[in-house]
Design brief:
823 residues; alpha+beta; 7-stranded antiparallel β-sheet; 5-stranded antiparallel β-sheet; 25 helices; 31 strands
């Protein structure tokens, strides 16, 4: 009997048929050894009956007929399984019974030989030939005959064999009997195999349909459901019972039905599969997006009998794609520069803002290392720190000074973050950067302005007391020089004192101009005419080795400013230009009126007409470092001893105090151009009366002057001057004293109040208000060493106020007093 599956084990195949087997083939067996019917009858019986057996029960009937008709103990049909090294019986006859099937290995068994040849004939001695097959010994098998079964493509698919406990007589005839039934057995085995494969395929398909995450829907030709799997239930919310027999409209929104119907009709008319993405509606009335794959179902005659659809819910994917599209648009349209690199710093993506900021096109940047932007302004340690941060999974924040494609430097504020994949591994870095070059420039301008304002506060605070001292020095120098009795030597010494005082006064005025604390006496004048007047002096000042070129506008360039201060600005800038051209060159001064389209430092000029003064030279130019400190006080590029560094600071203060702006354009070796812009004033130009300026010093006519000055030396000096000129002087050291003197004057008239502005307690303007309330017709002259908000607004003298800046010349004071008092 064939072995049970539990006892199966591997066997080594025999190398060749033994000599004993060959001898057995040549021996003739005794007639009747196959059974009582005789061998010939048995063969005829097997041949006839094998073809008469129906498909159902074929193999059990076949093996029984073989065993009984041939009078043998065992008969079996087996099918190959797996890789052909195992066999599984289809039917087994054992000593009058059909027994259960089993699996067994072909190795080391006589049946293993069957698969390698057309016939395996061992009429006797088979146990000795295959000693490792213990089953042969257990069953007492002595003879074995088997032949392979082939399918229609000539591939081995199984075997048919008979076994007996005694030697087989007429082995060749028995083998012939097996050959007679082998073809039919092979056909049935192949059919059985194909049916089993179809059954398994159908089973697998059914499982796939039931378990697939895709909805599988079958439709009839009326577009009604006749198949509905669990995934369809999950996606659309309808159970199989609710869906079967319903028209497709129950899962198609009304707005999409016309388009879906067109797709359906085209599918039926043209055949072939179609794919579409549609809106669908669920049982819960939720709109979803689905991908549909539709295929016609065709019968054996080629007629379309229905449609099969595979449906995938892509709502989330569709949403994600929309989000990615929005994100992509946001990234593409972002004003920030965005760059994505791999972990080695190779650029994978840049947005249009990156192209605009850096000058590199996308195709020029992608594939290159991010180092193409390096400017050399950062040390290697700076970049190492960045890589250590992002390489460790952190976010790096900082600023880069980078270089554009055209070589220009710019500054970026950057945030660089690592990007991780689903496993948490860093796969990319994304940098979001903002160009802060302009912001840094504005911040630097603000710091510069704050620095200059701080120094200006210091200068203004010192100027008040310093100008009082200078006033005393210069005033008494004037008085001494008027004395006839002094020697020539003393007169020369006093003149030197006076010159030193005047130089100190000029430096104080520069400090006040720089700090915008100098009081301006503005008037409307033509800037072009002023430049023309100053140019006569400039030609002598700059020397013959420099060509002076004046470019004047045909229009009147009227501005409101202090002409004397603007002259000082022009002179300072031209002297600087001369010093920058020691070997000669060209100095160009241009005045012009322009429309309000420019902007020097952020203040708006839009819609405002302006006057521009441009002073340019062809000299040595300046470095970027020099330009950064250009308007700082005491900063100079000149040799030691040739300048104190207040000229440009003074220009800056005067221009800003006059409501204008100043900028500089300069490159080393290519000259320098200063451009100053003032608001245009469409008013008549103020004309000076030259006779008034040339008027001589006049004596007083007995008028009473109330002098208010907190500095004793200045007060005594002015009192001596005014008394000597014939005025009656009431001198007070402060506001309270002045009011007391006015009250005790016995009702006498006070013609003029000459008062300092800045005094302890009551300031000059408050004193003037009190005096005017008592003496309505009194005239007032204010004096001060620097700008005081009591009489000025933004450094400009208020209308109607007469002012004498300290230090003043006594002659100038006397003339101003006479002008105010009049005839």
């Amino acid at each position: 009997m064939p072995r049970r599956a539990s006892r199966a084990r591997g066997r080594q195949p025999a190398k060749s048929k033994s000599g004993a087997n060959k001898g057995a083939r040549r021996r003739r067996l005794a007639p009747g050894a196959a059974g009582g019917k005789g061998l010939e009858e048995a063969l005829r019986f097997v041949a006839e009956r094998s073809w008469a057996i129906g498909a159902e029960g074929f193999f059990p009937t076949l093996v029984r007929h073989l065993g009984e008709s041939l009078g043998l103990d065992y008969a079996l049909v087996s099918a190959l399984t797996g890789d052909g090294q195992m066999a599984e019986t289809v039917s087994v006859y054992a000593k009058g019974k059909i027994v259960p099937n089993m699996r067994y290995p072909l190795r080391d068994a006589p049946c293993g030989r069957v698969m390698g040849q057309k016939l395996c004939l061992y009429p006797e001695g088979v146990r000795k030939l295959f000693p490792k097959d213990t089953l042969l010994t257990e069953l007492g098998v002595e003879g074995y005959i088997g032949i392979p079964l082939w399918d229609s493509k000539k591939r081995p698919i199984g075997l048919i064999a008979v076994l007996d406990g005694k030697p087989m007589a007429h082995g060749d005839s028995i083998a012939g009997a097996l050959q007679l039934v082998a073809t039919r057995a092979a056909m049935e085995l192949e059919r059985k195999r194909d049916l089993e494969e179809q059954r398994l395929a159908a089973q697998r398909m059914a499982l796939h349909v039931e378990q697939t995450p895709l909805a599988v829907i079958e439709w009839d030709l009326d577009f009604k459901v006749r198949g509905w799997n669990p995934a369809a239930e999950r996606i659309f919310g309808f159970t199989r019972e609710e869906a079967l027999g319903r028209h497709a409209s129950f899962i198609v929104p009304e707005t999409a039905r016309e388009r879906v119907n067109a797709v359906w009709q085209a599918l039926l008319a043209q055949g072939g599969g179609t794919r579409s993405t549609n809106e669908n509606i669920t049982k819960q009335c939720r709109i979803i997006m689905c991908d549909w794959f539709n295929t016609p179902l065709v019968d054996a005659e080629g007629r379309t009998v229905g449609v099969a659809s595979l449906v995938e819910d892509v709502t989330e994917r569709h949403r994600a794609e929309e989000q990615r599209a929005r994100l992509g648009m946001a990234v593409e349209q972002a004003v920030e520069s965005i760059m994505i690199t791999d972990t080695d710093g190779v650029i994978l993506y840049v947005n249009p803002a990156f192209e605009e900021v850096t000058g590199y096109r996308r195709d020029e940047a992608v594939g290159k290392k991010a180092g193409i932007l390096k400017s050399g302004k950062h040390e290697d340690a700076y970049y190492r720190s960045m890589w250590e941060t992002i390489g460790g999974g952190g976010v790096w924040r900082g600023n880069f000074i980078n270089r554009r494609k055209d070589g220009q430097l710019f500054e970026e504020a950057a945030i660089i973050s690592p990007v991780r994949d689903a496993a948490g591994k860093i796969v990319n870095y994304v940098a979001v950067k903002r160009d802060v070059t302009r912001e840094r420039q504005v911040e630097e301008q603000l710091r510069q302005s704050q620095k200059m304002n701080a120094i200006g506060q210091l200068a203004g605070g010192v100027a008040h007391d310093f100008n009082n001292l200078l006033n005393v020095i210069l005033g008494y120098s004037d008085m001494l020089l008027e004395e006839a009795a002094i020697s020539d030597e003393a007169r020369g010494q006093i003149s030197e004192i006076q010159k030193a005082g005047e130089r100190a006064a000029a430096m104080t005025r520069q400090l006040l101009a720089f700090s915008r604390k100098q009081i301006l006496d503005p008037r409307v004048f033509d800037l072009g005419a002023l430049v023309a007047d100053v140019s006569k002096m400039l030609r002598r000042l700059i020397g013959e080795h420099i060509e002076l070129n004046l470019v004047s506008s045909s229009s009147v360039c009227s501005i409101r400013a202090d002409p004397g201060q603007i002259e000082q600005v022009i002179m300072n800038l031209c002297v600087n230009a001369r010093d920058a051209m020691p070997g000669g060159g060209k100095l160009t001064i241009e005045t012009r009126r322009v429309a309000g389209t420019g902007n020097l430092s952020g203040q708006g000029w839009a819609g405002k007409e302006s006057v521009v003064l441009s002073i340019g030279d062809t000299g040595t130019g300046m470095s970027p470092e020099a330009k950064a400190h250009l308007f700082e006080p005491f900063f100079t590029t000149k040799k030691e001893g040739t300048g104190v560094g207040l000229g440009l600071a003074t220009c800056y203060g005067i221009v800003r105090q006059s409501g204008g702006e100043i900028s500089v354009h300069s490159e080393e070796g290519r000259g320098t151009t200063f451009e100053i812009r003032f608001p245009y004033v469409p008013e008549p130009v103020t004309r000076e009366d030259p006779r008034r300026a040339l008027a001589g010093l006049e004596q007083g006519r007995g008028e009473t002057i109330l002098l208010v000055e907190d500095d004793d030396a200045v007060r005594e000096m002015v009192e001596r001057l005014l008394t000597g000129l014939g005025y009656r002087v009431l001198a007070a050291g402060g506001g309270e004293d002045a009011l007391a003197l006015a009250g005790s004057s016995g009702g006498g008239r006070i013609d003029l109040l000459l008062t300092d502005v800045i005094m302890p307690g009551m300031n000059g303007r408050d004193v003037a208000a009190q005096i005017r309330s008592r003496f309505p017709g009194v005239k007032v002259i204010f004096t001060s060493g620097y700008a005081e908000e009591a009489i000025v607004r933004d450094g400009v003298l208020e209308s109607g106020i007469v002012f004498m800046p300290k230090p003043f010349a006594l002659v100038a004071l006397a003339r101003r007093i006479r002008e105010v008092l009049g005839d």
